[in-house]
Amino acid sequence: MLDSKRVVFSGAGQSAVGRKLERSAIDLTLDASLEAIAHAGLSVSDIDGLCSYPGVRKDISPGFGPVALADVKNAMGLKLSWHSAGWEGPAQAGAIVNACAAVASGLCRHVLVFRTVTEASSVTADRKASVSGTGGDRISGPFQWMVPFRGYSAVNTVALYAQRHFHDFGTTRETLGEIAINNRRNAALNPKAVFTEALDMDDYLSARMISSPLCLFDCDVPVDASTAIIVSRAEAAKDVTSPVYLEAMGCALHGQDSWDNYSPNLTEMAAHDAACAMWSQTDLTPADVDLAQLYDGFSMLTLSWIEALGFCGRGEASDFLKGGSNIAREGRLPLNTNGGQLSGGRTHGFGYFYEAIMQLRGEAGERQLARRPRVAAVANGGGPLGSCFLLRTD
User: Fold this and answer.
1) CA angle at residue 122 from 118 to 127, to 5 degrees?
2) Rounded CA separation 367/18 (Å)
3) Mean pLDDT of 97-107
4) Measured between alpha carbons, how far is residue 57 from residues 44, 52, 85 in Å?
5) φ, ψ (nearest 5 deg) of residue 20
6) CB 24: neighbour CB atoms within 10 A?
7) pLDDT above 90 covers what percent of the chain?
8) Rounded Cα distance, 35 and 122, in Å
9) What are phi and psi of 75, to 5 degrees?
10) How far is the first Cα of the chain from the last one, in angstroms, to the nearest whole number?
11) CA angle 24, 66, 345 (to 5 degrees)
12) Of 54, 141, 183, 250, which sees the most CB atoms within 10 A?
């Protein structure tokens, strides 16, 4: 088993976040990377590991994977003992899983992990971010069986999970609305958030439907941004102020590696397997978690993570989310305190780590929670992709 006590999240950085920033992908990456290195109290020469998701991928979606490891290595003059980038794995945070394993095993001391997207500036009238079948490219992989039947995006599959959850447990659109409204309220405190204007339940319920029952406000917003995290071996980061430790992580995959047929009951995803694996590595329980940064590529995925991680029972999310008090900043489980991806912008999973680290270190500025958190849960992915982490300060 991975010795998580040897792993420290020593620094975090993030570039500007916005719609069509008119900055190159490598510029954004260097902004975030240099900020993260400085935040960790390190110099560029200390970095001996480099990791990213998914590497350069121009075949998936415009702006989805615009930066190669080689671009960053050469621009920063890094001398590497270990490096990795790839598409397959437990969602976007698979890169962070790999970095944690690398430092714990002694392959390197300090890993710069980055995720850069330029999805907002890369789209055109004919080619949309995260929508298959646009732009005239030949479709391969699982979407070749879905696009002919108008399954153009993951939103169509996640909507089926939502419909089944509604059917089995009495979940309603208002349940999902509480997540969107809470995220928008938190985004108002985040100077980098894309959407900050007030959102209430009437606004949510009257929004344009995208794939029933998911409306416009249930879907995250493409942006240009880069986020970087420094993962260090504990003994190499003794001088870090307010270190954030890895307590446990899970990335199990027990069901079928398929968006539309992961589990026979269609209300569980890889999140449930990953969560079980994570909790098996620690004596902490859901009651010990002080804040949660849970993937909200679609609001239904956040609901799934809430149940999977045991913050409420299976099928009980409707009661847990009712009224929004449990997930509010002053509530039992402050959720997505930077606005998440629904309002903050789709930094594709890494923004949750950035926010968790800043909150745990007491450096989140105006959005810092009044009660300083000590344990944070971070979760990434949906469908057959899932990984989750417990971070702690002591």
Assistant:
1) 135
2) 19
3) 96
4) 26, 12, 11
5) 60, 70
6) 15
7) 78
8) 25
9) -65, -35
10) 21
11) 75
12) 183
C-beta separation of 128 from 137 below 8 A: no
Asked if residues 259 and 142 have their Cβ atoms less than 8 Å apart, the reply is: yes
Place of tokens 């009951």: 265
CB 2 within 8 A of CB 215: no
Residue type, 288: D
Q: Is the pLDDT of residue 233 over 60?
A: yes
For residue 197, the tally of other CB atoms under 10 A from its CB is 9
Query: Which neighbouring-strand residues pair with 198?
Result: none
pLDDT band at 1 (very low <50, low <70, confident <90, very high): low
32-51 pLDDT per residue, tens = 999 999 999 999 999 999 99
Question: What is the rounded CA–CA span in Å between residue 208 and residue 221?
Answer: 15
Torsions phi, psi for 209 (to 5 deg): -75, 135
pTM above 0.90, yes or no: yes
